[in-house]
């Protein structure tokens, strides 16, 4: 980056931090995008003149509300919830809901901001949003989760709609939660429309939505490898997380011939040197999707595997790393360890799982680095396809949706290459994803004038 661009980035970030004090995750997400975009904005004064970056980093609105619910002992409990409607320049607001005790406005703003670019990359007409609550579903009964979701929707339903804002799942929000939320939405609005995605298959859900983020991440990884004449087949893969994204990343990587040797949760990671085969994956799905148990049980069941409490999997040698748990999961030291052990491909299944200095280390080492906006866009892409099916009142076959998902991931990869390749043909996927995502949104914002 030129020194002029450098100093513009610092001036811009100074103002942003002043306007959004203490929101570190949001600052981190905006800095990464700003560093990619600033040289382009300086070359194209129309974006600066129209204050596109300033407008893009200010949410259209944030709705904050209290959710009161009753636990199984009859106590009243209260949580805080948010919906950050960030930008609807290219379509209705779209993005997941996160239920986790760590949720703050900063986290939801970083997620909503990233979602604007990700959704643009899919080529589908979706704006960016995110929401959630500091409610902790862990250890709660189904009835408690239901009461929380029903109470949350009493407020949320006023702000969403199939052409306004379409929430979906994220950490702590899966099929169970979406069902409770959708049931209450349907009752309150007296309309059966696709205002949430990730629904059950018997009431408007799309085939392959459950698998889409994990599968899409592996498809993106395969696209990056194919471009250099390689493939994921035969590669050793480390995955973090053991939730929705991680499980289906394990499944697709294994189907394509890779050996996945780690998964994790907030208690630690398991290392299975033999790889997670179909039988072990079935156990993992039952453990996490049905019994909601801890990952340490995997090592109790399969003696070849070891459990490492309170640690992340990045010390285990691998060629491909797929962080699929949460933000800031790969620190600089983890990146150094991965590089020293021969890792040369990283695709982000989670949102912002890699710290900025760790990304820099990967870039310097010419790692094939697929940023979240591109690599995990498969989930929201199939959510977009769910909206299309709902609007058409049709359900497409598994094969049809999976083919469309593969096409969308290939298309996102091609856009990253178009916008991120240098003269020698090396691709900076971070710059590519940011620039390609930005181009479409910025054109729409310019066309609207001062709105
Ligand atoms: N679901 C989707 O379609 C999409 C999800 N994403 C992103 O992918 C990531 C994972 O989401 P998803 O799989 O849906 O969520 P899940 O709730 O299904 O799984 C989350 C996983 O991450 C672990 N985890 C969560 N927080 C922490 C933490 N602070 N430290 C260590 N581990 C943690 C969880 O462990 P534990 O159970 O112990 O908490 C669990 O294994 C998130 O970053 C999400 O934003 C991105 C695109 C789409
Ligand atoms: O499916 C969706 O609408 C949102 C998925 C999501 O939360 C994400 O892409 O981070």
TrEMBL record:
GO terms for biological process: glutamate biosynthetic process. NAD(+) binds at residues 213, 244. Pfam families: ELFV_dehydrog (PF00208), ELFV_dehydrog_N (PF02812). The keyword Cytoplasm does not apply. The record marks 170 as: Important for catalysis. CDD domains: NAD_bind_2_Glu_DH. GO terms for molecular function: glutamate dehydrogenase (NADP+) activity; nucleotide binding. Substrate binds at residues 94, 115, 118, 169, 383. Keywords: NAD, Nucleotide-binding, Oxidoreductase. InterPro entries: Aminoacid_DH-like_N_sf, Glu/Leu/Phe/Val/Trp_DH, Glu/Leu/Phe/Val/Trp_DH_C, Glu/Leu/Phe/Val/Trp_DH_dimer, Glu/Leu/Phe/Val_DH_AS, Glu_DH, Glu_Leu_Phe_Val_DH, NAD(P)-bd_dom_sf. The active site is at residue 130. Residues 206-449 form the Glutamate/phenylalanine/leucine/valine/L-tryptophan dehydrogenase C-terminal domain. The keyword Cytoplasm does not apply. GO terms for cellular component: cytosol. Gene3D superfamilies: Glutamate Dehydrogenase, chain A, domain 3, Leucine Dehydrogenase, chain A, domain 1, NAD(P)-binding Rossmann-like Domain. PROSITE patterns: GLFV_DEHYDROGENASE. Homohexamer. Belongs to the Glu/Leu/Phe/Val dehydrogenases family. This is Glutamate dehydrogenase. It comes from Rubripirellula obstinata. The gene is gdhA_2.
